[in-house]
Each structure stands twice: as C-alpha cells, then as structure tokens.
Amino acid sequence: MYRVIVSTTFDAAHRLVDYQGPCARLHGHTWKVTGEWEREQLDRRGLSLDLVHLKKQLRSVVVDMDHNLLNRIRELAKPTAENIAQLLFKRLSKKIPSGEYLIAVTIEETPGCSVRYETLTLAGGRGRGGHMASMPEPVTETAAETDPTAVNESEEEPPAPVYEDENKDKDKEAKNAGT
C-alpha cells in the first residue's frame, strides 16, 4: 500500500461560536491543510498517485475559504478546526478516482496545533468493506447565531478547563498564603 501526503495553505479569519476566551473574537490564521491518500498499485509510469493532480484537488476544496471569513461559509456555522477538517474531507472524498482511498485530512490552525479527521472511504463513498462511509454533517445554525459581530448573551458561562499546571500554581499560592 502506498500513502501519498499533499499539503497546501490558505489564509482565513474566523471566530469561535459559544466559546469563552480570546478565540471568540475575530482573528486569522494561515491554515495548513494536509490530505492523505492510499493506493494499492502503481500505474504504468511507476506512480501511485499524481502529486500535481492531488495538489490541484486540495486547492480546489479550499479556494472559497482563502482570504475569507469562515463563519460566513454556509457549511461552517461553527468554524472550528474539527469542523473545517471534516468539511474538507467531505469535499475531497467526492473527488476520489476509482481505486484510491482518501485516508485523512489534517488542518493545522497554528504551528503545533492540528486536528485530523479520518475515515476509510473508497471512491464513490464506499468504505473499504464496501459500505457507505457515514460522516455526520458539520454543525449548521442560523445566520444570526453565526454573526461574527454577535455578542454571546448566554446566562451561564461554561466552566473553564483546568490544566495540570494551573492546579500546581493554585496549590503553591495556597501554601504560600498559609505561611
């Protein structure tokens, strides 16, 4: 089995919906998108897949996102890295020629922070076992809920995650306060 990996980038802004923190405000990234395909055999030229063709396919599924506000893209009511990876996987899976498997799409929001969406899909939407690949649709909401200028007016604020290092700092502060 041959695995071919192709990447491209695009620049876009977004804001996280129903999120407490700086990412709830409008901000931008240079997003890196990586697609992974597999093919069992080489063609007559000795190639598993044509890298130039795959790069064009990858660029074609992000062209509407490049230099855009992702919250305004219909399929991305909640433009998290997870939903972007899933949407791009869905778009790419529709372009798979016979005999190729799209394995995964990885979206890197910032260097070192990425999300990988993967499933095994054969051309035509069939899984490797011959079954239809089931992918949940990206979350969609009304335009009012995705307005990047809207203020989150929810009464309850979700608890902030507590990371291990924060607990150590709090324990140290409590210990120092007691002395």
From TrEMBL:
Start-end of Basic and acidic residues biased regions: 165-179
UniProtKB keywords: Lyase, Metal-binding, Zinc
Amino acid composition bias (Acidic residues), ranges on this chain: 153-164
Region (Disordered): 124-179
One Gene Ontology molecular-function label: metal ion binding
Required cofactor(s): Zn(2+)
InterPro entries, per database record: 6-PTP_synth/QueD (IPR007115), 6-PTP_synth/QueD_sf (IPR038418)
PANTHER family assigned: 6-PYRUVOYL TETRAHYDROBIOPTERIN SYNTHASE, PYRUVOYL TETRAHYDROBIOPTERIN SYNTHASE
Protein name: 6-pyruvoyl tetrahydrobiopterin synthase
Native species: marine sediment metagenome
